[in-house]
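Schema walkthrough. Field components (list of strings):
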Amino acid sequence: MTLRAERIGLLALPGLSFLAIIYALPLFMLLLKSVQIDGQFSLAEYQLFFADEFNRAVLWRTIRVALLTTLLALAIAYPTAIAMARAKGIWLSIFLVAMVLPMSVGVIVKAFAWTIIFRTRGVLNDVLMSFGITDTPVRMLFTETALIIGAANVFLPFMVLPIYAVLRQMDTRLPEAAASLGATPAFRFLNVTLPLSLPGVVAGSAFTFSLAISMYVIPSLIVGERQQTLSMLTARSFLYLRDEALGATISSILLAIAISVVLVSSWLAARLGARQ
Amino acid sequence: MNQSARPDRGQRPYLDVVSVGKAFKGTTVMSGLDFRVAQGELVSLLGPSGCGKTTLLRIIAGLTGADSGDVVLDGRNISSLPAHKRNISVVFQSYALFPHLSVAENVAFGLRARGVAKSDTGPSVTESLDLVRMSDFADRPVAALSGGQQQRVAVARALIVNPVLLLLDEPFSALDRKLRETMQVELKSLLRDRNMTAIFVTHDQEEAMGVSDRIAVMNAGQIEQFAAPSELYARPKTAFVMDFVGLSTRLAGRVRHIQAGQMQIETAHGALTANGTLPVGTHVTIGVRPELISPEAGENTVQVTLTDAMVLGSKTLLHGAATEPDKLICELPGMRAGLSRGDAVTFGWSIADTLVYEATP
Amino acid sequence: MTGTDRLFIAISWVIATCCILFLMLPIVITVVTSFTSSAVYTLPPPEWSLRWYRSLAQRAGLWDAVKLSLNLAVISTLISLVLGTLAAIAVTRGSFRGRTAIATFTVSPLMMPGLVVGVALLQFFREIGLRDAYWSLLLGHIVITLPFVMRTLLASMAAFDFSLVDAARTLGLSYPKAILQVLVPNLAPAYLTGGLFAFLASMDNYPISIFLTDARNKTLPIKMLQYLEEQPDPALAAMSSGLILLAIIVLLIGSRTVGLNRMING
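Field assembly_structure (string):
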């Protein structure tokens, strides 16, 4: 039996149909629900949502936290990726383990660990007080700063690895060529290393931002009810408030943000790729 | 022992590498190496991989630091200068063109690094691209270029900044044979026109002989001989140089007898005579260039059983049976028919053409 | 290298080291805390003790949750490996239009907010009348694991030389047999890597699971957050340490068989 190339496509059918029915369809139905009232097309739910000041604050907070988390992660990740790209042997293994182990341990474990660290009677306060930096315990849990630090910690490997991958592939002769042409270290970095690392930065930032926008466990544990994010609001509407219309609306907004991030980063990646 | 022949022009050397040493991870790659090049010379560093030629190039460029010794350029000691201050351009084996920049942007890079505004680079870039005949490709991405085109862009990029010295690391190795020869001719004429001092690194002796005024043959971190191609070929100073540059008949032997400034040397293929007075009992290597051998008796004669007769159009190569590392090769001009494997032939040549080197037993 | 170069490299190493410590911090704190003798999270522990580990044996519902999570993780991963293989072959070897779109589609759940998918599934299952929590969870977990598997399989298959399969067929194997006996063993690293990461993702999942559970079917993450609300004592640190141990075992398996570098870089 010869398998014609077109027929091979049929192999994808089981997996595709599964995802289409159990993933795409439900999402589509959810989206549909958010633009309907009593079976009629209506954007009323969205209007209601945005009209409420509380909701707008939540939306803004969610975006702000996600942006700051991404920036913090990038600031730490970039130099780390540079060092990692030069690492060899045992050092490289240490780096890899340091990246993969936290990723594999899971969000629950890490978010919980940060609550221990940030507690009023917790680790960080004990350390700060024993070093004499503060006299009274600083309230860290339930603050946005704590959330950003905890989230950046959880998502850090997702920022480091793409940048590392790109830097590692970079031809080592390129900075040398630049030097022989008279480029100072700063010029070399700005005009060779940085532009070439951009695809990794875009990929890592897009993924981190996406994760940070939709994170649920981390804010639940670190800031709780006091400062909600969009995802927490969604969960509350379904599980506690029983306001499914609201839940559907917020879900659609989250979905829209997630899809936009994917589209923008793909476009950016394509533009960067076209020049290389 | 290092050979650093005086440059032909009898001036103070332009590039003076003085007693340079370098070790990697405890292994000494070179030590006490001297190397002098005159202004406007085209010079090659020729040797097998691992001989240290690329290391020396990188030390001159400032990409690698030497452990000891100095690099002096036009009277100035540049040993402690970082690479980007030396104004020494390098063309890399892989060309190292910046993938995120167009051809024109690549060429303009050196100027921009020196503070020239992007808008002012236009005329110089156009001129450089014209020089290498790549003007039509100015706005193309470098990934779309062929090997030869990339090489030309790399050369334009290196020359636009008017370097005091140009270094090229195996610049032709990625090109196919035909292209290689064309590029060598082009590059050589380009460099001559600008009176550019250039150092090539290569493992290909034909390439070295084609582009250089002088060739430094390197082996295990030492320069065995540094001379014009013809000198290297006719009067190689060591057995290594003889083997590396061109073909040769080579025989291992021992000095049996000295008389009147000549040595009688015993080899596996009989007794041979050569000029010189090494002590009796010395192990030696004898060498003769194949085109100096004729298929008839001479002052030195050896009986040979042919293993092969290669008719190559302009010449015929006769290979004789010999145990490695001995070689018996005779080169005859034109096409010689009638000789084939198994024939018994006589190889003969003059005593004056016999090269002798001390060998380790 | 200039002095400036060296300075920058030194700075990057310092930051990198801080980064490694920063990444390891939560894990270390968790493990250390789990061995405390006190009922509060003070560090260093007043005394080292295994009391919290011992208390796990009596924990109501913990082991049921562990069993459920393991069950879901293993079964959904296995199903995903099968579905993923078929789909990856189709995308890599087929020549129909929309191959890239399909590839992107199968990996897309990774980029979606898990919460939204959970909500959507909840409503959908209710709509079609699926009330059984276990089956809902299983279906949901396949959605979680499939993208992980697809990601590694797609990358590996793109690099796989399919003429090996053709060679096997000319030697007498049917297409399915050739796939099983030639492709699968050669892609073992990808299967292992994709499978292991998918397994861990399923074990750790909260946002989708929370919407699909009921009173009797709670996965481990859900149970743990429940304990956190009701009784936040260091027993949770002990549970976390158990998960950390699981992750270490998984990584050891991966690094011994496939190698750490390949696991991460594909």
